[in-house]
Design goal:
five-stranded mixed β-sheet; Restriction Endonuclease; 6 helices; 2 domains; 42% helix; alpha/beta
């Protein structure tokens, strides 16, 4: 199975695992008209229960730069999450999981620089509405910075993961004593930084 190509993609890959998703990296997508092929950086999925029935949640993550004009940055994201790609990913994941009904498709773009993220949110919301009208399932698009992931989301999700491990085992041990798996090596580094107050939650 292909592995993440960069440290940022590896971090996102581990973060999705932390939140209970099964993950695949660099998944081949539809061939392009001019030759070659495109890939999805991360496709993650998990089965949840809704009204006592199992349903599928898909998380499609792309990692990249947003260094251009507002219009060009919006087009970059639209290209990563166009109708054809979304339909293919849903079909691809459902084929792996016995065609379970879809609860939600979430498309997430993580920008390596944060300066351009906020200015595209209105355009992203409008594109989200367009996709929702053309697809037969719930869809959410979002974009945030790698800094946001590092300083806000991951520290919070590590705490949540530890709480779940404690409850799952029915032990009196405090959540802080539950350690992340060694195979999540970038998250393990963050766990060390957080526990030694070298990296703090930025809430």
């Amino acid at each position: 199975m292909p592995t993440p190509k960069t440290w940022a993609e590896e971090l996102v890959f581990e973060w999705a695992h932390l939140n209970g998703y099964a993950c695949e990296a660099n998944v081949p997508l539809l061939p392009q008209k001019r030759g070659g092929r495109r890939e999805a950086d991360i496709i993650a999925y998990r089965v949840v229960k809704k009204n006592s029935k199992p349903k599928l949640e898909i998380l499609h993550i792309e990692v990249g730069m947003l260094l251009h004009s507002k219009k060009k940055n919006v087009n970059i994201i639209k290209r990563k999450f166009d109708l054809g790609i979304i339909k293919f990913i849903v079909k691809y994941v459902k084929s792996k999981l016995c065609n379970l009904p879809l609860k939600e498709y979430r498309g997430t773009y993580i920008a390596l620089s944060e300066s351009k993220v906020n200015e595209i949110k209105d355009d992203l919301s409008n594109y989200n509405n367009y996709l929702s009208k053309n697809l037969q399932y719930p869809i959410t698009l979002e974009a945030f910075s790698l800094k946001d992931l590092l300083t806000k989301r991951i520290p919070k999700d590590i705490d949540n993961w530890k709480e779940k491990q404690s409850k799952l085992r029915g032990t009196k041990a405090k959540p802080k004593f539950f350690m992340l798996p060694e195979s999540w090596w970038l998250l393990k580094m963050m766990e060390y930084l957080i526990s030694n107050e070298l990296l703090k939650n930025d809430d």
